[in-house]
Amino acid sequence: MEEEKIYTVHIENECNCFKKSGFENNLTYKDKADAQQKAKTMECRMNQEFCHTHYFEAEDRGDIIVIGSVVRADFEDDDDDY
After folding, report:
1. Are 68 and 59 in contact (CB under 8 A)?
2. What is the rounded distance in angstroms from the CA atom of residue 74 to the CA atom of residue 59?
3. Would the pTM count as exceeding 0.85?
4. What region does 65 belong to: left with phi over 0, alpha with psi -120 to 50, or beta?
5. Residues 48-57: pLDDT tens digits?
6. Contacts of 67 (CB under 8 A, 6+ apart)
């Protein structure tokens, strides 16, 4: 008998905003499309609703979709380039 596949949405680094958000880490799904949709929804909400210290991006790694983060660059200095 073939084992049922499970797909996981994993937050790579749980920042303070994530911990306060009520979102859960390591969500599991039986359908990959459901996992991908949830990861994209979380990525979008985290980028829009969190404190904007980090930029979040979902990466499909097969059975796991990892939402990683990088510190956002300070764009204020770029305003002098007009």
Report:
1. yes
2. 24
3. no
4. beta
5. 999 999 999 9
6. 9, 10, 11, 12, 39, 42, 43, 46, 56, 57, 58, 59
